[in-house]
Write a structure and sequence with these properties.
alpha/beta, TIM Barrel, 2 domains, 10 strands
């Protein structure tokens, strides 16, 4: 399998000086080809963009790139200039682990298991993760959850933090979803480009807003999503195959959490491209005048009415966690997307149980 690198530059340092990055890329490829390493590109570029400097003693022969930290713009520029000057000899000068790389490697076509299960009428279970921790993601990915939704609306999860967290789900039988901060094309595009297989769109109140979310998440001609899915390199997906299947396989869930959304429910749920809806019980209750009372009898009627209409329209419904009792009720009503809890909730629950065992 032939190897290659992005023609747009050599990673982070392409930001500060694009022309240097392009020149360095060309000369690097010339040096690599001269050594006969046709099938394996030395990890110079990824190693350099993941280290604050060239090594513990500065640039020199046989230095390993040991630091896991990201580089600053200052160091990025140093890397660019150094590559430009030394690219012909750098392959022989540094002892760096090699790895296979292609720009868009061939692989299996994208297949969204969550969408498949919902289409089959299955009840799916997942967990909300809002803590910036790859370890937590790896832990819950190895359990029997159908999906993980990363909460980018409430809490500290931005694109930079989410990227490695989503990567931590690769190879596991779990679908990574991102709740974006807002119904905005930039947030939507970035979440998908770093590997999210589905999106939860907050505060969708009418058909126009639902259509906007779908357009932002779909490639032309269905939408306006840009061609920049950088995760394809590491996920083992073929570009042409991904473009062919992404519009169909990307999961779009809209949140119903206001009086206005309930009033416009049919218009929202019949929007082409909307795959499911999520009831946000706390905001929905607040919007109806029951602040802090998501289990109020009147809200129970509202939630049941939403699900009944969803079933009539053939659109699966989801429910954010309140309690296991509420979950059982929602499943009986026909909800198929059930949150069993959150990372912090599970931690607190386990801690309380342990303290209770010792009388605390």
């Amino acid at each position: 399998m032939a190897s290659g690198i992005s023609p747009s530059g050599v990673g982070a340092y392409g930001i500060c000086c694009p022309w240097i990055a392009r020149a360095a890329t060309a000369r690097m490829m010339k040096a690599v080809n001269a050594t006969g390493t046709e099938n394996r590109l030395l990890g110079v570029i990824p190693a350099m963009i993941s280290t604050p400097s060239f090594g513990p003693g500065g640039p020199g022969p046989r230095r390993r790139f040991e630091s896991p930290l990201g580089i600053s713009v200052f160091h990025a520029r140093r890397v660019s200039i150094y590559l430009l000057k030394r690219s012909e000899s750098i392959v022989k000068s540094y002892e760096i682990t090699t790895f296979p790389i292609t720009y868009f490697p061939a692989g299996e076509p994208m297949r969204n298991k969550l969408k498949e299960k919902l289409r089959n009428g299955e009840v799916t279970y997942g967990v909300s993760v809002g803590t910036p921790s790859n370890d937590i993601v790896e832990l819950v990915s190895n359990l029997a959850f159908d999906w993980i939704w990363f909460d980018g609306e409430h809490g500290p999860l931005n694109t930079e933090i989410l990227h490695p967290m989503i990567q931590a789900t690769r190879g596991r039988d779990v679908t990574p979803l991102v709740r974006v901060p807002w119904n905005d094309m930039v947030h939507i595009k970035k979440a998908l480009d770093i590997g999210a297989e589905g999106l939860i769109i907050p505060w969708v109140n009418n058909r126009e807003q639902a259509e906007y979310a779908v357009r932002a998440a779909k490639y032309p001609p269905m939408g306006i999503r840009g061609m920049g899915a950088r995760f394809l390199n590491t996920a083992g997906l073929d570009l042409a195959e991904y473009l062919r299947t992404a519009n169909e396989e990307t999961f779009i869930m809209v949140q119903i959490e206001t009086v206005e959304a309930v009033e416009n429910l049919e218009d929202i749920l019949t929007t082409p491209g909307v795959d499911a809806f999520l009831v946000g019980p706390n905001d929905l209750a607040a919007s109806h005048g029951y602040v802090g009372q998501p289990t109020h009898p009147e809200m129970e009627k509202v939630i049941k009415g939403i699900m009944d209409r969803g079933k009539e329209l053939g659109v699966p419904g989801g429910f954010a966690f309140i309690s296991m009792e509420a979950n059982r009720k929602r499943i009986a009503e026909g909800f198929q997307w059930i949150t069993l809890g959150s990372d912090m909730g599970f931690l607190a629950q386990a801690a309380r149980a342990s303290l209770a065992e010792v009388g605390r």
